[in-house]
Amino acid sequence: MSCCGLFLRRAAAASSCWAVVATTAIPRRLSSSQTSRGFAKELFLGKIEKKEVFPFPEVSQDELNEINQFVGPIQKFFTEEVDSRKIDQEGKIPKETLEKLKSLGLFGMQVPEEHGGLGLSNTMYARLGELVSLDASIAVTLAAHQAIGLKGLILVGTEEQKAKYLPKLASGEHIAAFCLTEPASGSDAASIQARAVLSEDKKYYILNGSKIWITNGGLANIFTVFAKTKVVDSDISVKDKITAFIVERDFGGVSNGKPEDKLGIRGSNTCEVHFENTRVPAENVLGEVGGGFKVAMNILTSGRFSMGSSVAGMLKKLIEMTAEYACTRKQFNRNLSEFGLIQEKFALMAQKAYVMESMTYLTAGMLDQPGFPDCSIEAAMVKVFSSEGAWQCVSEALQILGGTGYMKGHPYERMLRDTRILLIFEGTNEILRMYIALTGLQHAGRILTARINELKRGNVTTVLETISRRLRDSLGRTVDLGLTGNLGAVHPSVADSARKLEENVYYFGRTVETLLLRFGKTIVEEQMVLKRVANILINLYGMTAVLSRASRSMRAGLPNHDHEILQKI
Asked: How many other CB atoms sit within 10 Å of the CB of residue 551?
């Protein structure tokens, strides 16, 4: 097989997720409606909740047939009609392009069918995200509209609110925006200064404040806005708490600044939005009064997981374009594709694409289960891994392309500029690492508190048990968490890797216990320690996703499953 053919085959292995669905007939068992603790949280205890991640999620044949109806027309539109270079140069998406996106139903992908949307599951939404990502400005515009802009309505909106707003949002007649960030409030979302004051007759709120860097801010008709309100607490004291509101531009007092001139995603509309004595009806409170911070966090969590499929879609296109160049560009009388250091870069890109895609669809499968499982840590891990993987892979592609990649006449430098924002928005990766680590440590701390207190008090039995366990660990304990063997969750061909995962999970749990014993509550100030904890967890989740997906591919006998097995190494 030629080097070029090998590169493209590796890229095909990274895109086999949907070929898998087409050839498998065994549906994934769904858990009961009872909310689980969450797969990632249990890793902090050194446990693998197999039922959450094995087998790899699958969709039904009906869902597959439905999604395939959209794939062809969307792919054709982005390939033949979207001029990404023009969008980047002019700093806006043409009106006719937006109208076509609306006609394709892309403004209502996750809006329920009864409200005029496509009603796609998280898994199918992620699949279309791969296609939409072929133009970053369009992808960001659509994501700001539905992944965060209108998502609050779907998550916590009343039936009256949904009936009033969702149909026009689903059709694209109205566009949504998410208004949280302020000039003095970025990552510290709880410090916002926008304020909404309830009128004396309690019929409406007077909203004042400014929001910055609002995607779709100049296009939107409907805004999800977060502002401080006075709330009477359970102890009768009055406190400032954040409340979420649905605000129409037609309420009056809503204005926006000029579009920002950005480094990348230049075609998306980003600007300041100002609210001056805007009268918001009391029935437009989204969720509970004072519950806005939780609403904001839930909205952001629900949108983060899809970044993995979007980035994977972009990377697969990048691999294809770069491989074509490497297979035709000659230096020293040889194609670039024949050099080991170039092959290494392609292997890295294919591996990253496969892992982030696996993590995304595993998380989407969890989110699609009944019972609203808590996947906030998993979604954050997908976002961190995918954004950093994208930045690394685009940089490697430019290295292969050399001077060609640096020139504005080619799409690669634009892809580099577009990719940089991924590490910043929807929660900076630094903040998300702290969230990943502290949320998991808090979960472990609640469960391990009694044991840790016994150790601190010098309880003889607990101390001896701990010493005995650590002695066995130091002598090379055999760890069996149920992934291998006759009744194991993984295919025998990946048993060695599964055993390494089991050992890593077990010793991670022991390390977590040691950290809680050593630092206690002061762990929140140990950012370098927390960063390492988060990085370990991200790697463990990536390993799990790859093993689950590769095992499924092997059992189904899918094309390129041999390359999927190589990815797990």
From this structure: 27
